[in-house]
Design goal:
Number of strands: 0
Number of helices: 3
Order of helices and strands: HHH
Number of domains: 1
Strand content: under 5%
Structural class: mainly alpha
Shape: flat
Length: 105
C-alpha cells in the first residue's frame, strides 16, 4: 500500500462540470426570460411567476427531448441543476431590488 492519493476521477470531474454548466446556462436564461416578460404589459408579480414557470418548463422539455436524441441522455440531475440556476437567478434579482434599489418588486 502506498500513501499516494488516487488521481482525480475524470468522469466525476465532467459530471460536476456538466451540472455547473447547466446551472450557469439557466441562471442566464432566467434573466433573458425576465427581460422578455418585463417588455410585456403585465403586472410585476405575474412577470416573475411567468419567468420562473416558463424557465422550469423549458428545462424539463429540454431534458425530455434529449431522451430521443442519439448520443444524448436525459438526467434528473440536469433538471435539478437547471432549477437551481433559475432559483439562484430569482434570488439574485430579489436581493438586487431589496438591498441595492431598496424597493419592493
Amino acid at each position: 500500500m502506498s500513501n499516494q492519493q488516487q488521481p482525480p476521477n475524470i468522469i466525476d470531474y465532467f459530471w460536476s462540470m456538466d451540472k455547473l454548466l447547466h446551472f450557469a446556462a439557466y441562471f442566464v436564461y432566467y434573466f433573458c426570460s425576465l427581460f422578455f416578460f418585463k417588455s410585456l404589459n403585465i403586472d410585476k408579480s405575474s412577470k416573475q411567476k411567468y419567468t420562473i414557470i416558463t424557465s422550469m418548463l423549458f428545462a424539463v422539455s429540454d431534458e425530455f427531448h434529449q431522451y430521443f436524441v442519439p448520443g444524448r441522455s436525459a438526467e434528473f440531475g440536469d433538471i435539478l441543476a437547471d432549477f437551481a440556476g433559475i432559483l439562484f437567478g430569482w434570488l439574485i434579482y430579489k436581493i438586487y431590488h431589496f438591498i441595492i434599489l431598496k424597493k419592493n418588486i
